[in-house]
Amino acid sequence: MYLGFDTSNYTTSVALFDGKNVIQQKKLLSVKEGERGLRQSDAVFQHIVNMPQLMEDLCYNNKGIKAVSVSTRPRNTEGSYMPCFLVGFNTAKAVSTFNSCNLYETSHQIGHVLAALYSVGRLDLISEKFVAFHLSGGTTEALMVEPDEKEIIKATIIAKSLDLKAGQAVDRTGVLLGLKFPCGIELDKMSLQSSTEFKHKTSFKGLDCSLSGVENKVKKMIEQGSNSCDIAKFTITYICDTLDKMTENIIKMYGDLPLVYAGGVMSNTIIKDKMSNKYKALFASPEFSCDNAAGIAIYGYLKENQI
After folding, report:
1. CA dihedral 250, 254, 256, 260 (to 10 degrees)
2. Based on CB atoms within 10 Å of each CB, which residue in 39, 133, 243, 259 is the most buried?
3. d(CA 301, CA 305)
4. pLDDT reported for residue 6
5. pTM over 0.70
């Protein structure tokens, strides 16, 4: 068994991978009603509280730990750091020491990409070049992913949001509509109740997009008394149209490479349906789109068995 830990700013996650199947336990961090996120100190505390129970729930599957892996940073770039990842690292270090096995460190982002590949049955893509989109509460990026001897895969940002992130747009809209943070699942359900069609003029600077206009427009729609389901659909379709245009631009510049979509926002119904049909893109199932330790456990397996 290969054990993985991920302690992001949204979810405490632990997963086991046996080379074929993933078993995971995770718990969303609690956010007070009306708030749009957590301070790092609060996230660290909740991870510390959550971890023992998740480990206990998972331990019945322990058939011997061969390697331990953990996300220790948001991205594999210099200066990428968040205190909440220390909880996962400290736990992983203790477990690997106790079991006398190797400990492998990677990034939260690499975990998302590997989880998506596993979900769609395409882990073979780690041996070739492809484009991965990572859209979440803190990230809206398109990545050129290539094989890397040291990191398994190397992800280089080729396009991004210049301001508001897709997940922030979703959560801010949801909070304004009275939904509980994080708001992705409920906003998705709400948007599907709308029959209104929206035409959006997206904003780009080169390959990079801007999403900052969404929140102001949503506030105006609320003031004007628009239906909540229409407001939800407006936000989702704006993100979708922006992602569509970003994908078109990347294909024009880099050619027809495999497209993989990861991150919590990518579990949205409208976005998944449109993009997968138009581009034959690969979308992870919801449990592997949202924050999880599955990709981290898989990373440990790949490192331990690296040829």
Report:
1. -60
2. 133
3. 6
4. 98
5. yes
